């Protein structure tokens, strides 16, 4: 029965569609430019995707819990600027924890507003996007922040160092991905995040403290932002106030590409990582075959729509929406 | 009646979905001026059939005849234009719009340039509302109405078009007995005007009260049509589930001495006031009342979902403060909520995950979840409650209503509560599952659980309860023992007119 | 930034004490900047401008920021016209889109001084003067710096370079790229410009672009970046790939990071452009116009070449 | 209880105007002390200017209101705004229109508006036919349409200064600037559409309860497409109004517009989930935002301050709105 086949293919796509797309994509680009698949390039792409990836992992928690986070970009600028400033003022050993505390305080504020006060997360994080940008500008006085002694600091290890031949940003990315995969899919907390995102009311009726779970998700997200800020700061040892601008949408695009539903209750860290890598390789691949940078906008557009469309088409068993 | 031409005929309707035959050669004819009941267990194909009639699905095979003319219904609007009108079970209203706009949704009367003719709209609607004796106006915002009045708005919709066939899908699910009477009057009125009525319900007593003929579906197949006057409960049940049911009889009371729950002067704003009662171990206490009498709100307050404004709760003699469901669970209280899909289940999660959700913190090895421990619980209650699901991975949203409800019950039984509260345990559940759940509740009491059952169905309340608390306007009117209670007394009590001579 | 507030508050209080809302100074000059906060050049410019205005008793300043949004800038122009300031200084977000607004000010009799980045030729008749760097010359000079270095190294006939340009659509980015691309073949006809990609004035973006270049091209001898911020991003990428030693980096708008990289010998050269000079020149031009002095239409301030060889002649940039 | 609800309802509906009044009072007084300007902030000229400055965002926000009442969202208005401007300015230089002289102006206007409507229709069709959430669809086209903007003319600004065009755009018939008249026309039209027509009422019905609307026979899909056409059309009108007066468009123009517009619409009382909202409220919302920007500039606040204040105000307004919507202490905790 043809419909039966469609269903099998549909289920396959629903489960592994993003992976299939990823593999096809890699093959096509390798044919177009063999350099694409060299270990140097792959490593380079993963390294430069690490910052986006670390943030996307955090945002996955927020999205699975049924909320949005549009403030991660401007929050990342904030943590980058703060840690660079503190590096010279109180030294990296003190500066890094202080930066984490400040960033996570912002995350806690958002978590409080969305979790405990039950305010709409889209608007809250939109407001925070603007407010945190203002905060960053006030903090830095609008100036670029740079570390004075760039060669003499060990601080560069997070962004530029290598351990066992692997760049540290990739290690941090992998470590965080592994740890948070464990947290999201193998612990009671993770289960509660899915429950809260899947049906917040039913979760509350099951004795799960919805507000606290949402709060923790934002805290995790801000922790990841702080890690991203650390990598960013260490990588360039200096930064502008707008370093993270626009990243919130790229992060969201990666999470959506990974198949998380914006309604909450679905999505995994692994799929988000694939989503991040796809975005990274698109950008890099198009650059390598010599296409103008703006072509990547159009390609990303098509890929996002196709990925999400095929995903829900597989779930409902028909390609076109049944809405009349 | 039999020589009349049917208003609507279905001939050998077949509808398949990938892997499933939802309807297999179903035939049906609806005569003018008759109430034709459609029965069947959940999953029997009733709703698919209705969607075919409503123009939402296209049948793969077979014919629909409207007034003997073959017809293709492509959209809901086409169905409506052919005089087929639905009264939906789940209220299908836009809360922010006026009553009039809801009643004429999709076909507002127009002037030039697509402008709405408000004057005509309001006067037409007010006329209909007068006919139905509604206490509200065309301009009233639907969100401000009570549930029963919202149902009236749904019904009023049927009267706006020249309806030939009106399909009622579980219309009494959220109505009280008094409101049902109004509904049945309306159905009579429609009948007398030659409208054919399809009436879908799980409630036998309603079916026998108002229907003329009954058609039964089972597993997507048509099982026959009976004249109501010539059949009885047993025959119908057999036809529906393929076997006969053991009748539920209240067993011997298992009530013990010790009091599990004692509630003293509990209030929550003006939802309910000064409520006092107790529940013994091994006892089933039924709470009966109109929608809005405060029963569900009372249960939610005991469970920590609402903040009480005054009063005390004692569990096993000890005063307890319950500020959240987590507190309630820690004190051994379980609540099977009223709204299964909205409050009871995370529909996107699988069976096992749903069942172990409240105790997931305890099912761990190290800090990680322990699938083996989860599986033990799932397996135990799957067998105990005879839950029909291929395996634990099944997404709960894909189960039938009865099995979903059993997942919720299993979830709370696995917590081994002192006190189990079940709110409308069988709403929207077919006859077979219904009696299983009733038996289960009695069985639990027999094992020493204290159970509170909230229900709007009188037979249900009468058959499972040891004592019955009648509530009216947020207050307890009277508590009946199973010996003294009669249907009359109960109806009076929940309408606030019971002579409260033996007040406790 | 607090400086300005103090200025505003103190001035306002002083004037309030004396004559209600009337101004005490001879001239009120309004300025609308492109996008303060996007980089420290603009921030330093804003501070320098406020400081210069504060130091000058004759001047009160109304300082506005368009946030990079052309619609907002036009609105600010209208506000300034409505407030009847004596002169308007504009740092255009878009060299053409502001022309009608400039014409409006011209029509209202308010002289307009364009700063930093000029408006298009059609607007020339409506402005009193342009004060700022000559971005085309800057581009040409960067080309010369790079070419001279290649000649010194003896690879002027084989060198291959890439360009990282500024934010697409911005006049400064376009002019610098044009100046560079026009001049390079004149001085070094055999140097190949392999590819140009935008780095959006953003160090991180530029670093990513450079990473891709490094994978794509085995032989890169030089990188021209639209400013030092991006240049340092490219340098970081090359350092990470261990190829920094083979590449000559030339930028523009010498930032502190670029200056430091030059001190370390990693970055070859740039164009020295001080936002303080830029701001002061703009204010001075405005005052000169208001005082009726003869002001040239194009009032460029000098932006000299800076390389590792002559950097000791320059102070380290403060931004 | 009933009284309180009605009071809260009224307060909710007029909240934005109270807020505007507070802003006016604050900036009016603070302006006297802090501003260098000789004119009062509240001067009629300045207020007229204020309204004129709200026009570009305002016209788009009207369309966004209907989209959001309908239960959707459009994040792609920024690039549509830029693309329409490119069409407007570029078509004026096309050789085939060379013979028209200044009559090319209405032709270009029409073309730009056509393109805007088509881009809107594409969004709508994707939302309808694929069933993908509008947020994701328009997030995608926000990128994709921006790509088209760049594709058109690379990184160069598109530029054509036609003084006749500028003079038309800056004319003041009846003493009122033309953009304000266009804005007023759009307000009247969208108000009429939402309050008086079946299409508008259906938008509320669909946003409020989509299943009910489907069951009632409303063709939800085409309805949504028309709303996207409408917002595309209004974005184009806004773009034409604005760029006729400025004559040049950068490929980056319109960035972040979607965020400001959604903010304004939400401030104006439109529900994010759909089903509730009003055109008049949205007008209040855009005025409130422009007033904030203008006022903060007037009293000399810097960029950092403006960002901080606007972000915080948004959250505070959301909080107040939530308090007004609460059912008191009896509320279910879920």
UniProtKB/TrEMBL annotation, chain A:
Q: Which InterPro entries match?
A: ABC_transp_permease (IPR001851)
* Matching Pfam families: BPD_transp_2
Transmembrane stretches, start-end? 12-32, 44-64, 93-116, 122-142, 163-184, 213-231, 251-282, 294-314
| Keywords assigned | Cell inner membrane, Cell membrane, Membrane, Transmembrane, Transmembrane helix, Transport
Is the Cell membrane keyword given for this protein? yes
Tell me if Acetylation is a UniProt keyword of this record. Answer: no
UniProt membrane topology term? Multi-pass membrane protein
Any idea where this protein resides? Cell membrane
- Name of the protein this chain belongs to: ABC transporter permease
Q: Which organism is it from?
A: Maritalea mediterranea
UniProtKB/TrEMBL annotation, chain B:
Pinpoint the ABC transporter domain residues: 8-244, 254-498
* Pfam families linked: ABC_tran
Which positions are tagged coiled coil? Answer: none
Q: Which InterPro entries does this UniProt record tie to the protein? A: AAA+_ATPase, ABC_carbohydrate_import_ATPase, ABC_transporter-like_ATP-bd, ABC_transporter-like_CS, P-loop_NTPase
Q: Which domain of life is it from?
A: Bacteria
Q: Which SMART domains does the record cross-reference, listed alphabetically?
A: AAA
Gene3D superfamilies with a match to the protein in the record: P-loop containing nucleotide triphosphate hydrolases (3.40.50.300)
Task: Tell me the SUPFAM superfamilies matching this sequence.
Answer: P-loop containing nucleoside triphosphate hydrolases (SSF52540)
Task: State the UniProt keywords alphabetically.
Answer: ATP-binding, Cell membrane, Membrane, Nucleotide-binding, Repeat, Sugar transport, Translocase, Transport
Task: Provide the GO MF annotations for this entry.
Answer: ATP binding
Q: What family does the database annotate?
A: Belongs to the ABC transporter superfamily.
Q: What is this protein called?
A: Sugar ABC transporter ATP-binding protein
Source organism per entry reads Maritalea mediterranea
What is this organism's lineage? Bacteria, Pseudomonadati, Pseudomonadota, Alphaproteobacteria, Hyphomicrobiales
From TrEMBL, chain C:
Q: Does the keyword Signal apply?
A: yes
Keyword annotations for this protein, in alphabetical order, are: Signal
In terms of superkingdom, the source organism counts as Bacteria
Q: Where in the cell is it found?
A: Cell envelope
Q: Where is the signal peptide?
A: 1-24
User: Can the keyword Lipid biosynthesis be found in this entry's annotation?
Assistant: no
Mainly localized where?
Answer: other
Question: What Gene3D superfamilies does its record include?
Answer: 3.40.50.2300
Under the heading InterPro entries, the entry gives: Peripla_BP_I (IPR028082), SBP_2_dom (IPR025997)
Q: Which CDD domains does UniProt cross-reference here?
A: PBP1_ABC_sugar_binding-like
A family per Pfam = Peripla_BP_4
Q: Where is the Periplasmic binding protein domain?
A: 34-294
Provide the family line. Belongs to the bacterial solute-binding protein 2 family.
PANTHER family per the UniProt record, alphabetical: D-ALLOSE-BINDING PERIPLASMIC PROTEIN-RELATED
Know the name of this protein? Sugar ABC transporter substrate-binding protein
Q: Which organism is it from?
A: Maritalea mediterranea
TrEMBL record, chain D:
* Keyword terms of this UniProt record: Cell membrane, Membrane, Transmembrane, Transmembrane helix
Q: How does it sit in the membrane?
A: Multi-pass membrane protein
Q: Which Pfam families match?
A: BPD_transp_2
Give TM segment ranges.
15-34, 54-73, 80-97, 103-127, 134-154, 174-193, 225-245, 295-320
**Where in the cell does this protein reside?**
Cell membrane
Instruction: State if Transmembrane helix is listed as a keyword.
Output: yes
What is this protein's name? Answer: ABC transporter permease
Q: Supply the source organism for this entry.
A: Maritalea mediterranea
């Amino acid at each position: 029965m043809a419909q039966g086949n469609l269903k099998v293919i549909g289920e396959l796509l629903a489960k592994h569609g993003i992976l299939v797309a990823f593999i096809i994509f890699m093959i096509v680009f390798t044919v177009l430019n063999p350099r694409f698949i060299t270990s140097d390039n792959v490593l380079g792409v993963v390294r430069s995707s690490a910052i986006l990836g670390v943030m996307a992992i955090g945002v996955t928690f927020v999205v699975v819990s049924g909320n949005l986070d549009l403030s991660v970009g401007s929050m990342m600028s904030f943590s980058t600027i703060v840690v660079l400033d503190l590096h010279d003022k109180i030294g990296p050993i003190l500066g890094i924890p202080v930066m984490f505390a400040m960033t996570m305080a912002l995350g806690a504020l958002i978590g409080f507003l969305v979790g405990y006060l039950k305010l709409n997360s889209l608007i809250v994080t939109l407001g925070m996007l603007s407010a945190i940008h203002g905060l960053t500008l006030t903090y830095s006085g609008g100036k670029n922040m740079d570390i004075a002694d760039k060669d003499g600091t060990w601080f560069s290890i997070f962004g530029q160092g290598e351990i066992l031949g692997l760049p540290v940003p990739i290690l941090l990315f992998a470590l965080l991905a592994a740890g948070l995969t464990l947290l999201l899919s193998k612990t009671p907390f993770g289960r509660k995040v899915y429950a809260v995102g899947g049906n917040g009311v039913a979760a509350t009726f099951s004795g799960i403290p919805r507000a606290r779970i949402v709060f923790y998700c934002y805290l995790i997200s801000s922790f990841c932002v702080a890690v991203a800020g650390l990598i960013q700061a260490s990588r360039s040892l200096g930064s502008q106030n707008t370093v993270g601008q626009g990243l919130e949408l790229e992060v969201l695009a990666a999470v959506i590409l990974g198949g998380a539903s914006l309604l909450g209750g679905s999505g995994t860290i692994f799929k988000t990582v694939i989503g991040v890598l796809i975005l990274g390789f698109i950008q890099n691949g198009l650059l390598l075959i010599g296409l103008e940078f703006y072509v990547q906008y159009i390609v990303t557009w098509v890929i996002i729509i196709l990925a999400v469309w095929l995903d829900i088409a597989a779930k409902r068993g028909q390609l076109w929406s049944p809405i009349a | 009646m039999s020589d009349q031409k049917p208003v609507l005929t279905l001939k050998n309707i077949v509808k398949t979905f990938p892997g499933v035959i939802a309807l297999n050669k179903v035939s049906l004819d609806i005569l003018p001026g008759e109430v034709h009941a459609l029965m069947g267990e959940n999953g029997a194909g009733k709703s698919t059939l209705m969607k075919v009639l409503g123009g939402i699905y296209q049948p793969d095979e077979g014919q629909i005849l409207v007034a003997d003319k073959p017809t293709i219904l492509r959209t809901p609007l086409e169905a409506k234009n052919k005089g087929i009108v639905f009264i939906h079970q789940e209220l299908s209203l836009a809360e922010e719009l006026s009553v009039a706009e809801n009643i004429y949704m999709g076909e507002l009367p127009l002037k030039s340039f697509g402008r709405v003719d408000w004057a005509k709209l309001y006067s037409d609607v007010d006329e209909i509302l007068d006919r139905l004796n509604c206490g509200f106006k065309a301009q009233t915002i639907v969100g401000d109405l009570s549930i029963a009045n919202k149902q009236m708005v749904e019904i009023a919709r049927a009267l706006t078009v020249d309806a030939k066939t009106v399909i009622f899908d579980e219309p009494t699910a959220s109505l009280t007995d008094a409101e049902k009477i109004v509904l049945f009057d309306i159905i009579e009125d429609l009948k007398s005007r030659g409208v054919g009525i399809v009436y879908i319900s799980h409630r036998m007593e309603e079916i026998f009260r108002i229907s003329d003929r009954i058609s039964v579906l089972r597993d997507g197949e048509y099982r026959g049509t009976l004249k109501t006057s010539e059949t009885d409960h047993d025959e119908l049940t057999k036809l529906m589930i393929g076997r006969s049911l053991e009748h539920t009889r209240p067993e011997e009371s298992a009530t013990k001495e010790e009091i599990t729950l004692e509630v003293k002067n509990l209030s929550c704003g003006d939802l309910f006031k000064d409520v006092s009662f107790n529940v013994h171990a091994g006892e089933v206490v039924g709470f009966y009342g109109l929608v809005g009498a405060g029963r569900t709100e009372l249960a939610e307050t005991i469970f920590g979902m609402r903040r009480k404004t005054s009063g005390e709760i004692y569990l096993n003699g000890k005063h307890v403060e319950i500020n959240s469901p987590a507190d309630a669970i820690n004190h051994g209280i379980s609540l099977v909520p009223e709204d299964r899909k909205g409050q009871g289940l995370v529909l996107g999660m699988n069976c096992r995950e749903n069942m172990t959700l409240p105790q997931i913190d305890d099912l761990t090895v190290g800090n990680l979840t322990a699938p083996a421990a989860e599986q033990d619980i799932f397996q135990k209650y799957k067998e105990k409650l005879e839950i029909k699901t291929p395996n634990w991975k099944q997404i709960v949203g894909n189960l039938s209503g009865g099995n979903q409800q059993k997942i919720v019950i299993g979830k709370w039984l696995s917590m081994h509560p002192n006190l189990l509260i079940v709110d409308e345990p069988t709403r929207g559940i077919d006859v077979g599952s219904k009696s299983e759940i009733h038996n289960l509740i009695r069985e639990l009491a027999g094992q020493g659980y204290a159970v509170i059952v909230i229900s709007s169905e009188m037979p249900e309340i009468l058959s499972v309860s040891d004592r019955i608390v009648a509530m009216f306007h947020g207050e307890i009117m009277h508590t009946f023992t199973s010996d003294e209670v009669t249907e009359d007394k109960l109806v009076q009590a929940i309408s606030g007119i019971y002579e409260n001579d033996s007040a406790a | 930034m607090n400086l300005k507030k103090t200025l505003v508050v103190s001035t306002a209080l002083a004037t309030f004490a004396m004559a209600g809302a009337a101004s005490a100074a001879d001239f009120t000059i309004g300025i609308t900047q492109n996008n303060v906060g996007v980089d420290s050049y603009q921030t330093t410019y804003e501070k320098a401008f406020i400081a210069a205005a504060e130091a000058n008793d004759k001047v009160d300043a109304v300082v506005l920021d368009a946030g990079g949004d052309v619609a907002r800038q036009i609105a600010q122009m209208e506000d300034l016209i409505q407030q009847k300031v004596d002169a308007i200084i504009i740092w255009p977000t878009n060299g053409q889109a502001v022309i009608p607004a400039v014409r409006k000010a011209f029509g209202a009799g308010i002289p307009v001084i364009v700063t930093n980045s000029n408006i298009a030729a059609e607007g020339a008749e409506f402005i009193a003067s342009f004060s700022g760097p000559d971005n085309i010359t800057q581009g040409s000079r960067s080309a010369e710096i790079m070419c001279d270095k290649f000649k010194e190294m003896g690879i002027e006939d084989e060198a291959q370079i890439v360009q990282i340009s500024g934010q697409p659509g911005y006049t400064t980015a376009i002019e610098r790229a044009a100046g560079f691309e026009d001049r390079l073949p004149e001085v070094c006809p055999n140097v190949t410009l392999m590819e140009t990609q935008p780095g959006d004035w953003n160090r991180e973006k530029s670093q990513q672009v450079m990473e891709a270049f490094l994978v794509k091209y085995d032989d890169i001898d030089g990188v021209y970046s639209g400013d030092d911020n991006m240049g340092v991003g490219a340098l970081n990428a090359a350092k990470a790939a261990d190829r920094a030693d083979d590449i000559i980096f030339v930028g523009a708008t010498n930032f502190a990071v670029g200056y430091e990289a030059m001190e370390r010998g990693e970055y070859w050269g740039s164009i020295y452009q001080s936002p303080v000079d830029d701001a002061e020149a703009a204010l001075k031009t405005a005052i000169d116009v208001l005082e009726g002095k003869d002001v040239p239409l194009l009032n460029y301030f000098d932006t000299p070449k800076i390389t590792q060889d002559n950097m000791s002649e320059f102070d380290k940039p403060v931004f | 209880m009933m009284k309180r609800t009605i009071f809260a309802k009224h307060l909710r509906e007029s909240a934005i105007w109270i807020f505007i009044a507070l802003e006016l009072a604050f900036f009016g007084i603070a302006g006297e002390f802090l501003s260098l300007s000789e004119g009062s902030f509240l001067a009629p000229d300045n207020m007229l200017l204020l309204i004129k400055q709200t026009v570009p965002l305002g016209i788009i926000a009207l369309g966004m209101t209907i989209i959001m009442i309908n239960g959707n969202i459009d994040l792609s208005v920024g690039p549509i705004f830029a693309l329409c401007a490119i069409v407007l300015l570029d078509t004026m230089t096309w050789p085939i229109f060379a013979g028209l002289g200044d009559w090319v102006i209405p032709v270009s206007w029409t073309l730009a508006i056509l393109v805007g409507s088509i881009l809107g229709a594409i969004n709508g069709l994707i939302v309808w036919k694929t069933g993908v959430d509008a947020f994701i669809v328009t997030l995608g086209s926000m990128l994709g349409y921006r790509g088209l903007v760049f594709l058109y003319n690379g990184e160069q600004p598109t530029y054509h200064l036609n003084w006749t065009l500028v003079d038309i755009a800056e004319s003041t018939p009846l003493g009122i600037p033309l953009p304000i008249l266009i804005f007023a026309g759009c307000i009247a039209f969208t108000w009429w559409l939402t309050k008086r027509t079946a299409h508008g009422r259906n938008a509320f019905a669909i946003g409020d309860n989509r299943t009910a609307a489907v069951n009632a026979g409303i063709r939800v899909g085409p309805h949504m497409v028309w709303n996207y056409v409408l917002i595309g059309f209004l974005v184009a009108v806004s773009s034409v109004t604005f760029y006729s007066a400025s004559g040049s468009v950068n490929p980056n123009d319109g960035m972040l517009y979607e965020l400001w517009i959604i903010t304004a619409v939400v401030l104006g009382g439109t529900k994010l989930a759909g089903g509730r909202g009003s055109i008049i409220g949205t007008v209040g919302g855009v005025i409130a935002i422009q007033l904030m920007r203008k006022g903060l500039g007037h009293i000399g606040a810097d960029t950092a301050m403006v960002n901080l204040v606007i972000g915080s105000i948004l959250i505070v307004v959301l909080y107040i709105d939530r308090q007004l919507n609460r059912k008191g202490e009896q509320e279910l905790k879920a």
